Structures are given as structure tokens and as C-alpha cells.
Amino acid sequence: MNSVAVATRNRAGGQPKPGGGRAARAKRALTSSSASAIAIAIGLLWSVPTFGLLVTSFRGSVKDIRRTGWWEALNPSNWGGFSLDHYKTVLSGSGTANLADYFINSIVMTLPAVVIPIFLALLAAYAFAWIPFRGSNILFVGIFALQVVPIQVAMVPLLTQYVNLGLNASFWVLWLSHAMFGLPLAIFLLHNFMKDIPRSLVEAARVDGAGHVTIFFRVILPLMVPAIASFAIFQFLWVWNDLLVALAFGGNTPDLAPITARLSDMAGSLGAKWHLLSAGAFVSMIVPVAVFLSLQRYFVRGLLAGSVKG
Fold this sequence. Notes:
Helix content: over 70%
């Protein structure tokens, strides 16, 4: 496996070729001072509403929130009005204000809903990319076309099957549903990245006597980390922020409802507890932000690898 190891290191961590090339030009354009200035300006404008929501979440008096804007609270003379009361209420309060149990429900619902489609999509992508079989192109086009089918179309037939199988009102239906809805995009993205791996690398492994299982786990999978991380971020954010699928298949029961359902209930039909939504929104952001920051290095590598092929 020496030839495979050398080739793998060259692709995963090798130095870029000097001179031109689309990859080099794209890197220079994205790292220029003008591009950085535009990115910073867009980031600041995009962050203003979020910063206002953060300031509001610490304002203790509901009357002050209703009477003045969040920017007025930044005056040092008004800093005495800041408190953690809203966060204490949403994390330890009772009734619709308690988010702690639903926070755990979201974690239990999201992690398998991310792992399952990635595992299945990797196997399918490898088969489409490196195992020739009759009808593979038609089948791949069919999977690609499934991305344009609205998930609302599949809800009634799926729910009927879940009820017939006795799986309704459980985390299984949420995991399976999110996995099915995410699989077409996962297969498409991972296949495109996997197809870009040099054929000589796979052939070298075969010459060394490796089978499909060895090639998949020891050659292909280490090179797929950026692509896996990119899709994992997309799928995690989609499942974590989902409300439609969770309500349709899991109902709004305390044992299955995610944090998004509780945030919706917190607002109420008359918006009576809208002042708690700012704190609840930031509690719900903690995990997605942590996931994005921890994987953003691979996320950028995965996006660039898919955009500057050749």
C-alpha cells in the first residue's frame, strides 16, 4: 500500500502547484484585500439584527423593551437594566417557557438524522463512482431528480406507512424522514467529490491487492472529510431548525417536540411572551454555532474543492 499512501498524502496535504490554474486564481481572488473588505462589510450589516436581538435578550424590563429601541440600551447610563432573567426563565421556567427538555430532544433528533444519510450516501456514492453496473446513469439521474420533489408531497404517504408499521410518534420516524429527505442531495454532493479522486489512486490500490472495502475505508474515506463536513453542516442546520417535519411526524408532544416547536409555542397566538423569544433564540443557536465553528475549516475546503475542479 506504499504507492497508495504516497498518492493519498499528495492529494490530502500536498502543496499546490506554483503558477496559474483556476484553483490558484480563485484563491488569489478570494484572499485579496478588496474581497476581504466586501466580506467584512456584508458580515457587519448581516450581524446588526442579530446583535440587536442579543442586546434585547439581556434587557430585564419588558416595559423598557417596549418603550425604547435596543440601541438606546447601549448608553452606559442604561447598563443597569441588563440581567439574565430571560435566560433563567427559558432554561428553568415552567410551561411553554421551559426549553431545557426540548433542547435535549433536538440533540437526540439531529445527531442520528445527520449520521444516517451520510453513511448511506457514502456507500451509494462509491457504488455510482467506482462500481460500474447496468443502469447506473439512469438511476443516478433519478436520484438527482428527487431533489426537486417537495417534501410536502411525501408526507401523507410516509405517515400512512409509519402508522401501518407501528412506528408513528417515535424518534424513528423523524430519523428516517430526515435521512430520506437528505439522501438525494448527499449522494449528489458526495458522488461529485468522490468522482474527482484520481482513478490512478484507486487503480494503485487494486494493484496492491485491495478490495472495495479496503479501498473505501483506507483510500476514499480519508479524502472525503471536507465533503462530509460540508454536507454534515448543511444537514445539521436543516434538521436542527426544522419545524414542519417534526410537527408532521412527531406531533407536538413533550417527548418528541424539538426546540423550534417550543419557541413557536412560546410566542403564543397573541405573542404574549415575545420578550422571551430573544433569549430562547440564542439558546437554540448555541449548538449550531458550535458545530459550524468546529467544522468551518473543512467546510471551506469542501466548498473550494467542489468549485475549482480541474
